[in-house]
Amino acid sequence: MTLPSWQDKKLGSMARAALWLLQVVGEDKVFTKAELREAFPDVAQIDRRLRDLRDHDWKIDTSRDDPTLKQQEQRFVARGAEVWIPGKSKAPKHKASLTAAQRAKVLEGDNYMCRSCGISAGETYEDGITPAVLNVARRKVLLPEGPETYQNVTECKRCGAGNGDRQVDLEQVLGQVQALAPMERRVLRSWIAADQRSLGPMEKVWGIYRSLPQDSRKAVAEALIGIED
């Protein structure tokens, strides 16, 4: 089937953006925001229309998803729905964009910290240099009753990189909770009540160690062998 031209102004701007990706950029190719705006000088919110394609299963990575990309770059990974065909441009309800108020509510509910690593906005990572930036991500949740839903969660840019397809099996998590020993459940309750868990020195060192390059890991292992207990 021959695709309509991305320059056909009878089409909506989102449909034209999709066709531009296919006909000009190409799958797995990188483009910049400047190139996008240059292609659509007549569309004031073309950046937003491009983002809307993600609601139709188009995969377009930013530097958040792919750390190899620069801030102004994006990668067209894979096409989704044929949004230029009438009836296929309506976004699913669960993928509606968040308002500023909704985003603020998610951040407040998550205590303004990444729910994956626990870092707060502005805090620096282990390197002591890079500050954390928080985003609100959609997470697919498989409910115990069987159906799936989408829920919002706070995560930092580093934890969110490349994890757009992450999902949670809530029934499995609840099963793991049930399987804990009574003492373990009491400890878990205290962590949940405080919404944090303080790591001991050994756990902190382990966290740093497992992120080291291979040669550095070997150096730590060898040093540990040489230390008398």
Polypeptide structure, described:
With 229 residues, this protein is α+β, with helices and mostly antiparallel strands.
Secondary structure topology:
Layout (H helix, E strand, L loop, with lengths): L12 H13 L3 E4 H7 L6 H7 L6 E3 L11 E6 L21 H10 L24 E9 L5 E9 H4 L6 E3 H9 L3 H13 L6 H9 L4 H12 L4
Parallel strand pairs: 4-6
Antiparallel strand pairs: 1-3, 2-3, 4-5
Helix pairs in contact: 1-3
Question: TL;DR?
Answer:
The chain is of the alpha+beta class and 229 residues long. It has 9 helices and 6 strands; from the N terminus they run H-E-H-H-E-E-H-E-E-H-E-H-H-H-H.
| Element order: H for helix, E for strand | HEHHEEHEEHEHHHH
What is the helix tally?
9
Mean pLDDT: 87
Q: Give the N-terminus to C-terminus distance in angstroms.
A: 72 Å
The proportion of residues forming helix, as a percent range, comes to 25-40%
Structural class: alpha+beta
- The percentage of residues in β strands lies in 5-15%
Task: List unreliable stretches of 5+ residues.
Answer: none
Number of domains: 3
* Biggest β-sheet: strands ordered side by side in the sheet: 1-3-2
Largest sheet: 3 strands, antiparallel
Strands, total number = 6
Short descriptors:
single chain; 229 residues; alpha+beta; three-stranded antiparallel β-sheet; three-stranded mixed β-sheet; 6 strands; 37% helix; globular
